[in-house]
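Standup notes
- HV: blocked on the assembly model, inputs below
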Amino acid sequence: MFRSDLFQGKRILITGGGTGLGKAMARRLMELGAELHICGRREGVLQEAAKELAAATGGKIFCHPCDIRVAQAVDEMMQAIWQQHGPLDGLVNNAAGNFIARSEDLSPRGFDAIANIVLHGSFYVTQAVGKRWIAEKRGGSIISIVTTWVWTGSAFVVPSAMSKAGIAAMTQSLAVEWGPKGIRLNAIAPGPFPTEGMTKRLAPTEKLERQMIGAIPMRRVGNLSELANLAAFLLSDEVGYISGEVIAIDGAQWLNTAAGFGALTELGDAEWQEIRDNIAATNARDKAQRTV
Ligand code: NAP
């Protein structure tokens, strides 16, 4: 699908790049020639992922233990990357946390636990990269991993829905503010992609998992490679005119669940015949009443 040297000479940072979607994107970008930098709070997880990805792709990858909730730590990480390696060309805001809870039960700490990573942390990282690009008069590409809740909101995950909507607003705002400086920002809104983070905290029972898959028109979860390919596409200079967009990759799940008739995809021929008969009977009754 892509030239194998698409990202040759490019340096890209993925937050939360040691696990799940972040790791899958790191692998794809390395396969396409990028020098990868990954950050996260757990150094051991980062080191293990880096070892695995370097062996699988033969590419270069560097780990940066960093808690993106701490603005100063983010700036120090960026300083270290710039000084020891050189400027970044791309950034993927992927790190996040989430859990299901009734909103009335949430403590301020519970709310902050999510908002501090997703909303505040993503801004700290984006600003730390953007201000360096602006000072050096060089462009760059940023993508953020959000959710389709940016369009619909979502019950029981309100801190995440609010924070992801904030990242979508940042994407659109900075696409305009930083566009003249050659900086592009886009976002990806994935549907369900099986990762440890997603399964443990968001689909913790088999029943919930079955219900979730039933609501996806393509009747399957996403493949990590599909998400990684979209990330590579959006980061690439080859699509340098795309900016300020939020693109869903969810098998049409959110369109189905946002509209009211999605459950009808479960009906068989007999049930559709019954529906047609009922509608015909209602029409006939109405016509008879009109002629009386
Ligand atoms: P995951 O494996 O739990 O990934 C989250 C990553 O973020 C971890 O590597 C974690 O590393 C890192 N992280 C968390 N807090 C951090 C902090 N304060 N500082 C630095 N790093 C931090 O989950 P995932 O499923 O791959 O999710 C990745 C992204 O995709 C998230 O933005 C998520 O909202 C989004 N998403 C996923 C799905 C899905 O179906 N999987 C669907 C829609 C959107 P440490 O714990 O070591 O810090």
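- HV (later): unblocked. Residues 18 and 278 are 55 Å apart (CA to CA). The first strand starts at residue 11 and ends at 15.
- Next: hand off to the docking folks.
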